[in-house]
Amino acid sequence: MLWLYLHFPALQLNSLAPTEQPRALVCERSHTLVQLNGPARAAGLTPAMGLAMASSLCRQLEVIPYNAELNTRRLHEMARQLYAASAEIMLFEPDGLLFKAESMLRYYGGFTRYWSTLERLLNAEQVEVIPATGLRPANARLMARAGQACLDTAPEPLEQQWQWIALQHSELPAKTLSQLHQLGLFRFAELLQLPMSELANRLDRDSISYLRTLTGQKASPVHYFAPPAYFEHYRELPWELSTSLLLREYVQRSLTSLEQFLKARAQVTDAFSLTLHQHQLAPKVVRIEAGRGECRARVWQRLLDVKFESVHLDTPASGFTLRADPGYCDSPEHRDLFDQASGPCNRAELIALLRAKLGAEALGYVPLADDHRPECVAFPQPGTGTVTADTALALRPSLLLKTPRLYRDPLSIVTGPERITTGWWDQNSVIRDYYIARNRQGAWLWVFLAQGDKLSSPAWYLHGYFS
Amino acid sequence: MHTIDQLLKSRLIHRGRDLAPPGTLQPSGFTPLDQLLGGGFPRVGVCRIRSTPGIGELRLLLPCLLSETAKLSVFISPPGSAYPDFWQARGVAAEQLLSIETQSVPQKLWTARECLQSGCCNAVILWQEAIRLSDVKRLQLAAAKGQSCLWIMQAQPTTLSLPLTLSLRLQARAKGLEVSITKRKGGWPAGPVCIGWQQLWPDLALSSAIPNNSRPLQPHHLQSI
Q1: Looking at the complex, does the CB of residue A331 fall below 8 Å from at least one CB of chain B?
Q2: Beta bridge partners of A289
Q3: Domain A232-329 is classified in which CATH homologous superfamily?
Q4: Across the interface, do A411 and B217 touch by the CB < 8 Å criterion?
Q5: Extents of the domains making up chain A
Q6: Do A380 and B94 touch (CB under 8 A)?
Q7: Are A379 and B93 a contacting pair at CB < 8 A?
Q8: A459–B121 C-beta distance less than 8 A
Q9: B140 interface with A at CB cutoff 8 Å
């Protein structure tokens, strides 16, 4: 059985923007270097070196705190990307992925083509990686963590190679390691000369079971990775950005990933929410709705640009999370092949664009209500169904004012009255006599007479235009 | 001469002999108006209607709005919201009509531009009094891109000359509407022509029995009813 292990020595560091300056990630608890970039390594720094020594060796060293959670999150993203090329993947948090290469060899027709496909995906992600093959998962992991890149597939060299790895690169506990070093044993080849029963007397149970998985006497447990059903991306920004306009290019990359994610599943989604993480303030959530199923990054970007014009950050943003709504299968829209007049976007796209810029309330829709009182009717939202017009009613105005307006100019009544009354069922009862009237300019108005009380005299109110 | 050449170069003077023929037209739905306009309203362009609100300016455009039911009709900041009972009784479905309410002028113009160039709008009607020359040029480009027509509704007369495809002035008459063409691309001002409402809107036309300038009614008149 052939396995491939990928060790990512600097996952968090690689997700930052590249730099020519020496840069290192430091564990905040132990003050030791964890991940280093090329210039830092060239300056003579090594992993696990103390911070004091590192800064005395390299004066310009840029230090960033190491965050194991971020690293793990990035590893999950890598697994999601590589899942497109390989079926069975196992996660070794925080920095390794194991592939069951054997099952993919027949599909790709050889290990070389399998690896070149993986390599192409890895190059696109721009991460440092140490690949190693092995006959058992533990062997491949040992080789990769020791920094021994190896892409052999023949069983004999693979069985030999791992035995020459130094014991210190293994997962043996520090106490066992020092015991073995005191005995003069430094490599696995030397250790395995001894009979296993003898070793069992000297070493603890965990070390023995580790040795047995390396030699293949014991199978290691396998839990395969399954990609999540939804899309979620978290990105830390290289520096804090104070305007949403600068954020654009970083979000664009995530939108491209979203498009790939959806296209690979032949899915579309209705909306996504973008959470902007701000310092010392609650995160700001921007919701973008397409109004219908959409997967194209170009369309999302347009909506986001329009939305960003009205989004103001109170404090600079340090990162963002992009989470898409659950995707569903797309049913292609019926387009007229010969309709030359149809423009670049369709109705749903236009409504989504207007909603993003002006806000949903500007589109002037209120929920559908079947009511005879003019205040209670309005157009339903597009796509929610249709109201059937009551043609038995007298003529209604084409434009209705939201609130009736006091009208003082002279009027002449043409038709009326038409009484609209009651509404006791929702404590909003009205009794009004409506008239169709004409003013001096010749405008046709829908007016009612409000009966005055003790304080006010009766007055005409304008409620609509017969435009 | 020098200055005339400059003006011609900067396209501020148009020669009568260079008159572009009017683009494609669509019947307005009113025969006397079609005869006056040489076929109907323009299908593409920026038009203006100057009228007092409420005299029947939307009813004039109604046949035009009904011509393409697959496309949207957009109202941008109308003086009131569209009343569904009226529009549906005339065959304009709810999902065909989009009403947008915003008071900011840049947003109104942005919305009009986006709607025009989207190509999915049949007609866009914008209520906006003051409008700049550069904005009208931009709207013309957007209308050409999306093959749609913008109608600007204005109540106040302006002195500013705008590059409009068509400009109409409406005046209320007892029996209907008097339409005159004040400006037309590829044509001359014409009119007025009278459109009678008796057939289409019997409730909204005065019969000859009632004189147009009848005695105005004040609230106290009605109390005795």
Answers
A1: no
A2: A271
A3: DNA polymerase, Y-family, little finger domain (3.30.1490.100)
A4: yes
A5: 3-215, 232-329, 392-465
A6: yes
A7: no
A8: no
A9: no
Give the angle A391-A394-A397 at the CA atoms, nearest 5°.
95
pLDDT at B220: 46
pTM above 0.80, yes or no: no
**Any idea what the CATH number is for the domain that residue B48 is in?**
3.40.50.300
Interchain CB distance below 8 Å, B54 and A350: no
Helix (H, G, I), strand (E, B) or coil at A426: helix
Nearest-CA residue of chain A relative to B85?
Answer: A389
Neighbouring C-beta atoms of residue B190, cutoff 10 Å: 15
B105 touches chain A (CB under 8 A): no
Report chain A's mean pLDDT, rounded to a whole number. 82
Residues of A in contact with B94 (CB under 8 A): 379-380, 382, 386-387
pLDDT > 50? residue A354: yes
pLDDT tens, residue by residue, B117-152 = 988 888 999 999 999 999 999 999 999 998 899 999
Contact A464 B57 (CB under 8 A): no
Tell me if B196 is assigned to some domain.
Answer: yes
Residue B38 in this model has a pLDDT that exceeds 60: yes
A135-192 per-position pLDDT tens digit: 888 888 888 988 888 888 888 888 888 888 888 888 888 888 888 888 888 888 888 8
B155 touches chain A (CB under 8 A): no
**Half-sphere exposure in the Cβ direction for A192 (13 Å, CA):** 19
DSSP element (H, E) containing A467: none
Number of domains in chain B: 1
Out of A401, A436, A458, the one facing B219 most closely (by C-beta) is A458
Question: A400 contacts in B (CB within 8 Å)?
Answer: 80-83
Of residues A408 and A19, more confidently modeled? A408
Q: What is the pLDDT of residue B215?
A: 46
* A386 contacts B93? CB cut-off 8 A: yes
Q: Is residue B22 part of a domain?
A: no
Give dist(CA A35, CA A41) in Å, integer.
10
Please check whether residue B149 lies inside any domain of the structure.
yes
pLDDT over 90 at B179, yes or no? yes
pLDDT over 90 (residue B168): yes
ipTM of predicted assembly, 2 dp? 0.84
Domain encompassing residue B159: 32-203
Residues 6+ apart with CB under 8 A from A465: A397, A398, A399, A443, A444, A445, A446, B53, B54, B79, B80
Q: What is the pLDDT of residues A25-68, one digit of tens each?
A: 888 888 888 888 888 888 888 888 888 888 888 888 888 888 88
Closest B-chain CA to A464: B80
Residues on chain A touching B111 (C-beta within 8 angstroms): 354, 357-358
In this structure, is residue B19 part of a structural domain? no
Average pLDDT (A368-373) is 60
Cβ <8 Å between B172 and A443: yes
